[in-house]
Amino acid sequence: MPAFPRPLLTALAMLAAALLGGGSAAAGPVSRIKDIVDVENVRPNQLIGYGLVVGLQGTGDRTQNAPFTAETVQSMLERMGVNIRGDNMRTQNVAAVSVVATLPPFARSGSTIDVQIGAIGDATSLQGGTLLVTSLRGLDGEIYAVAQGPVSVSGFRAQGQAASVSRGVTTSARIAGGAIVEREVPFPLLSSTRLKLALKNPDFTTAFRIAAVINNRVGGAAQVLDPGTVELTPPGDAPGAVVELFARIEELPVEVDLPARIVINEASGTVVMGADVRISPVAIAQGGLTISVSEAPIASQPEPFSDGTTQVLPRTRINVDDGGGHALGILHGGTSLVSLVAGLNAFGVTPRDLITVLQALRTAGALQAEIEVQ
């Protein structure tokens, strides 16, 4: 992708702010800078490990179906001086699990983090179990935390001879503060001379507003690099100047600009529309056409003492119902989201019908918004 000159980026951002600021019917949401940006390289890291949960009440892995559980138990006991190689182990009080955690930025050695546990084998429940000491590694193979402790399961399951009841997932558990950080992820924030703020939702207007608010507080400290990045440069070069600058500006309010977008989830029939969605002049008619075809064959019997044979005569019934199509009327230019939804609700349009109407409007070029189908 070609790099745009910085003056051009600034001009585009100012133009977008002027157009949207002058034509918007209502002010956008106001948020703090710390809530709408991420600091470059200041991010969490994912950790993963493999361990054993013991103390289960016969709901663990069946070793004949999960040989890795038996091998893990054998290896653990051998390290403790117990040799059971060659023995047929049939315990169902142990389950092999995956252990995952998220190491937050600037986590220090000795602090604790939460861990999530999931069964790997055919265990039916982790209720009442205890996770044995498990090392958690990053993608670089290094150990960053160690987890251990009693697991907490949110679901439950009860079963009898003829009935069973369950709620939630009993093969997934959590340990609050169950891992201790052993290794820190270094980041030279104190010695940094510049800091880049990455917008969570890149936008020219929002990036320009962030830079303008910061420069009003600290002159010349911020500049827009692209729609998703604002660079901070502290006025002084003293150690920690970048940290002090971000602490001064992170609470500043910024009016966030949102694009006109419609998100559709066809699986659940959910439609989410932004407040800036507009409709060009258009007429909408909505109705349902139902065609039902049913077969009711009848048997034709011959006369008594005749040489005829019984035959099956087809009988087909076709019913057509146009549903009494509902005309939703004419939408004038600049119709807002509120007017559109009110009109559709007045005629009892279901969410799935609404999805069809919105897609038809987009195809006709009358919907001034981006549609994202999930």
Q: Work out the number of β strands.
A: 25
Between the first and last Cα atoms, what is the distance in angstroms? 27 Å
Gyration radius, rounded: 32 Å
Number of helices: 7
Name the helicity range. Answer: 10-25%
**Order of strands, widest sheet:** 3-4-5-10-7-6
Shape: flat
Low-confidence residue ranges: 1-26
Kindly report the oligomeric state of this protein: single chain
Give the integer mean of the pLDDT values: 79
Task: Please describe the biggest sheet, giving its number of strands, its sense, and whether it closes into a barrel.
Answer: 6 strands, antiparallel, barrel
Number of domains: 3
SS strand fraction = 35-45%
Class of secondary structure makeup: alpha+beta
Protein name: Flagellar P-ring protein
Pfam families: FlgI
Keywords: Bacterial flagellum, Cell projection, Cilium, Flagellum, Periplasm, Signal
Subcellular location: Bacterial flagellum basal body
Q: Explain this structure to me?
A:
Belongs to the FlgI family. The basal body constitutes a major portion of the flagellar organelle and consists of four rings (L,P,S, and M) mounted on a central rod. Pfam families: FlgI. It comes from Sphingomonas endophytica. The protein has three domains: 6-42 and 188-255, Dipeptide-binding Protein, domain 1, CATH 3.90.76; 45-181, no CATH class; 261-373, no CATH class. With 374 residues, it is an alpha+beta fold. The strands form nine sheets. Strands 3-4-5-10-7-6 form a six-stranded antiparallel beta barrel. It has a four-stranded antiparallel beta sheet with strand order 2-11-13-12. A three-stranded mixed beta sheet has the order 16-15-25, with helices on one face. Helices cover 22% and strands 35% of the residues. A hairpin with a 4-residue loop joins strand 15 (261-265) and strand 16 (270-273). It has helices at 6-23, 33-36, 67-79, 204-217, 241-249, 337-346, 351-364; strands at 30-32, 37-39, 45-54, 94-103, 112-119, 130-137, 143-150, 156-159, 164-167, 172-181, 195-199, 222-226, 229-232, 253-255, 261-265, 270-273, 278-279, 282-286, 290-295, 298-300, 311-313, 316-321, 326-331, 367-368, 370-373. Mean pLDDT is 79; it is low at 1-26.
